[in-house]
Write a structure and sequence with these properties.
The chain is α+β, with helices and mostly antiparallel strands. It is built from 3 helices and 7 strands, in the order αβαββββββα. About 40% of the residues lie in helices and about 30% in strands. The strands form 2 sheets. The protein has a 4-stranded antiparallel beta sheet. A 3-stranded antiparallel beta sheet has the order 4-5-6, with no helix packed on it.
Length: about 110
């Protein structure tokens, strides 16, 4: 019973770690023009776009032109964008992930010894 509790606590701890990236909001003032949008978003970025109609699209940017931003199966007019979030690397989340992995290894070693 004690081993199951230990394993459960380790699994829960790992689930709280999350990933190494997070969505960063690109200021909505900048999404009204192509020139400002390309300063923040480029081809290959993973984005979450919310249109003025409330429709949400999540995709990897394949192209940006003067009128629209597009992914594999999605095209959104720049004029229709209300908010856009860009996935970016997070040093803090990565640090927690590394710390979590090290903690799991140490805890596992302690459980094996005991």
């Amino acid at each position: 019973m004690m081993n199951i509790l230990k394993i459960f606590s380790v699994v829960v701890f790992v689930l709280f770690l999350g990933g190494c990236s997070s969505m960063k909001v690109v200021d909505n003032v900048h999404v009204n023009s192509h020139a400002e949008l390309i300063k923040h978003v480029e081809v290959g970025d993973e984005v979450l776009v919310i249109t003025k109609q409330g429709v949400t699209h999540e995709f990897t940017v394949k192209a940006i032109d003067s009128k629209k931003i597009s992914g594999e199966k999605v095209e959104v007019s720049i004029a229709d964008i209300d908010k856009i979030n860009k996935k970016e690397f997070s040093l803090l989340k990565t640090g927690w992930l590394v710390l979590g992995v090290i903690s799991i290894v140490v805890m596992s070693c302690c459980f094996i010894v005991s």
